[in-house]
Amino acid sequence: MASCDFLFDYASPWAYLADILRTRLLPGVTVQLQPIYLRGLSSFSTGIPYSPAKLQYIMQDLGRCAAHHAIPIRPPSHFPVNGLYALRGALWCQQHAVAAAPAFHAAAFAAAWRDDRNVSDRAVVLELAHEVGLDRDAFSAGLDDPAIKDALKTRTAAAAERGVFGVPSFFVGSQLFWGHDRLDYVARALAAL
User: Fold this and answer.
1) In this predicted model, what pLDDT tens digit does every residue of 64-102 receive, in sequence order?
2) What distance lies between CA 43 and its chain's CA centroid?
3) What is the CATH superfamily name and number for domain 3-191?
């Protein structure tokens, strides 16, 4: 079965679009979800690397892209989004609650980019975990687990070493594809394997 890696951060609206589109455009493909911390990449380490005019354009274009693909989106009232706690939660789920990991993943993206819930807030991320049936105390401890923190740092550094400079990013073998609008390229690369 074909497989690819999907590197994402819940802070990215483009990763939200890619997450929904991957289920439509990559049927039958095993997609390995790889949480990375966008702010850990050099281009985002000091904040959003866009001028006010570019940021305004990006938000308008985001609305157009979402409408084109019939994906519900609602820009968050708390911006920029910091996906740190949700990313740690996703890693904890991948290691300790595998069956619930897809539900938590979908809930985190929907909370940030559809439902205007502040996933930058640890308490909101704990609510999401509870809503998808995770043990609140175990999940809460996982968010602060040094091994989970280190795993996120390690994954982010490894992504940067592979040439990742933003999300969403997809890998087919060693080939990097950046952007929600490159999933057709991902599909072609997978078909060529």
Assistant:
1) 999 999 999 998 998 889 999 999 999 999 999 999 999
2) 17
3) Glutaredoxin (3.40.30.10)
Alpha-carbon distances of 172 from 21, 145, 175, 186, rounded to whole Å: 17, 31, 5, 7
- Which tokens is 72 given? 């519900």
Helices (H), the chain: 13-25, 52-68, 84-96, 101-113, 122-131, 136-143, 146-161, 183-191
In terms of Cβ atoms closer than 10 Å to its own Cβ (0-12, 13-18, 19+), residue 35 is buried
Q: For residues 139 and 86, give the distance between their C-alpha atoms in angstroms, rounded to a whole number.
A: 11
DSSP string, 117-172: --TTSHHHHHHHHHHTT--HHHHHHHHT-HHHHHHHHHHHHHHHHTT--SSSEEEE
Residue 51 φ then ψ, to 5°? -70, 160
> Rounded to whole angstroms, how far apart are CA atoms 173 and 3?
9
* pTM beyond cutoff 0.90: yes
Whether the pLDDT of residue 49 is over 90: the answer is no
- Match 């049927």 to its residue by tokens: 27
Q: Compute the average pLDDT of residues 166-191.
A: 97
What is the predicted pLDDT for the residue at 125? 98
**Beta strand pairing call for 30-35 and 169-172:** unpaired
Token pair of 148, please? 């989970």
* Averaged pLDDT of the chain: 95
